[in-house]
Design goal:
single chain, about 110 residues, mainly alpha, 1 helix, about 0% strand, rod-shaped, transmembrane, membrane, transmembrane helix
């Protein structure tokens, strides 16, 4: 081996070292970035859990309102025929009172 070959081998090894250093720097940067993503993911997960807990209470309120609206709808549906019956009873009572009072129809 002559000096020229040794110099070429030395240059190639130096280039390989530079590439390895570059790759090491990239891997280190990726690891740091991944660690930051893990921290942000943990923060996001905690925020999501807080939101879920807060909205669970709101969901319970909405579901109870939904049930209340169903009951009020049923009461409304029952009130309409009941109103007709009360009106019929009132008109019959008025007719009976008119007959007892001596008021004749025109």
């Amino acid at each position: 081996m002559n000096d020229e070959n040794l110099q070429q081998i030395h240059n190639e090894l130096a280039e390989g070292d530079k590439r390895m250093d570059s790759l090491t720097d990239e891997v280190t940067a990726i690891k740091l970035e991944q660690a930051q993503f893990r921290v942000e993911l943990a923060e996001n997960t905690n925020a999501t859990k807080r939101i879920e807990a807060n909205t669970a209470e709101m969901l319970d309120v909405f579901e109870s309102w939904k049930g209340a609206m169903k009951v009020l709808t049923w009461i409304g549906k029952a009130a309409k025929p009941l109103g007709y019956l009360v009106g019929l009873g009132a008109s019959m009572a008025a007719f009976w009172a008119a007959l007892k009072g001596g008021v004749s129809p025109k």
